[in-house]
## 1
Amino acid sequence: MIDIQLPWYVIILGLAAQALFSARILVQWIASERAKKILSPTVFWKISMAASFIFCIYGWLRNDFSIIFAQLISYYIYIWNIDAKGAWKRINIFLRIILVSLPVVAALWSVMDWDYTYRHLFEQDGLPVWLIIFGTVGQIIFTLRFVYQWLYSRRRGESLLPLTFWVISLTGSLIIVTYGIMRHEYILIISHSAGILSYARNIMIGLGNRQGGLPSTGS
């Protein structure tokens, strides 16, 4: 069930973003199952960047600070991984400028008109502050998986998806699903419920490789 109080175009944006997020997980999952180890395919990061861009717009239209906050952090980590894969410079330079600068411009605009931004994101009838905080905590945990992944990959000089990444993913996703249930945010519920299975499966693959003495991640 989708929140029918939302305009149709907002619902479509949310569903489109979540469809892309689900597609990236499916692509990564299939690649990892075939290789019998956790892989980090380039297409995973490209789809992630596109989905994040759309979902950030959805978060603004949905008056959801927790969504926007998380996407602004993970978005640039996606770009870093695309660059680490050697694929960023193959994108048209004008498109690269737009992709890098547009979120920054939007954030600056929001800060400059802070009174409106605060009312839009935080002053909502019937939405308690503790629920906003709870949802934001879930999004922070979920986003920290990409901060961890970025630090882990930088130390090893290549884009990888380590076992801990999937453990953090599962933890954050469970919190976000709970937040979605309390806020009747069905798009979040659907998307993260679908992802939980993949996160759990990647954990199983990673643990199996460790027990077998094989590397748990691959490029």
## 2
Amino acid sequence: MLTLDKVYHAHYVLKEAIRQTDVIYSPVLSDACGCELYLKCENLQITGSFKVRGAYYKISQLTDNEKARGVIACSAGNHAQGVALASKKFGIKSIICMPDGAPISKVEATRSYGAEVLLVPGVYDDAHNRAEELREEHGYTFIHPFDDEDVIAGQGTIGLEIIEQVKDADVIVVPVGGGGLVSGVAFAVKSLNPKIKVYGVQSTGAPSMLNSIEHKHIETLPSVSTVADGIAVKEPGRLTFDICSEYVDGIASVTDDQVSAAILALIEKQKQIAEGAGAVSLAAVLFNKIPDVKGKKVVCLISGGNIDVTILSRVINRGLLMSGRQCSLTLELMDKPGQLVGVSQIIASCGGNVTAVLHERTNEGTAINGCYLKLQIETKDFEQIKLIRRKLEEGGFKVLK
């Protein structure tokens, strides 16, 4: 059984292996969210994620015989690095099964800690199945990424730290994949202060725990698709489902666009890098997915920062669109001199900045001397976008979208 004593023991053991990450108050994000907002920065943890806590504590509790056999794990990336690092410190062999779509940066980081990496076609659950097969074949000790009491206890140490760092917190918001992190945090926090609300957040493209809690039984999703690869889990754990059902106050979901906007907000406003899974907690507060946070003291757990730089620019672009910092407009014009000048002058007078222009002749069925003008514009916010559209229409230009 998971106990508070076990969480405290994990806290003691982990002192030699991890850092106690800072909780940072953000005045700018507080204004945007309408609450007193704090960030628990596990993106600044060693390995760049909270996962090292559970992995290290679990491996520390193995018997000598289990360590001698070596360990195997499955992961989309962050648990992999935690297991690899812990195995290296204890001098034991580690094999990690990862989805073949895992970010290259996470794959290479895992290898850098000395683990043998096997890429498995599919998503996390496919990697899990392959890891189980290899465990049976070779007798490795399996280190589950979330459905294990020792792993959950390790993640629960974050809850102990938050209570100590923000003594009068009202709400804690936690990312959810398989449920190990939110289970540990909620169990530790509620055991010490039941008045604190703990909410989980999933991606709308992978709502396995959300659906399971709503329907009161574990459900398996047919597929998952989300920019938050660290929480792309088809089925929650049985142990984590039971703990979440008892201790978590609710689970929200956010879209990839909302996650992208949260990543952008962290970069711009807080000078912090978060991966998709790490930013879902902030996305939920930014887009009013969590009840009763207005005017409250809220802690968002930023669970990881291992975002692949190859997709970061795409995520930023999505965030710019979602936050009104960038827009696309299509105008129908008469193809004659001076049209482009007129459009440019109006946009400039409104403070917009045109970054791309595409001029197309119209197709069959439209005016013979007509054309389409597609514009990419840098803007300040949605109000400025509305102003630009209105001024263009007042200037006699037909804005299609």
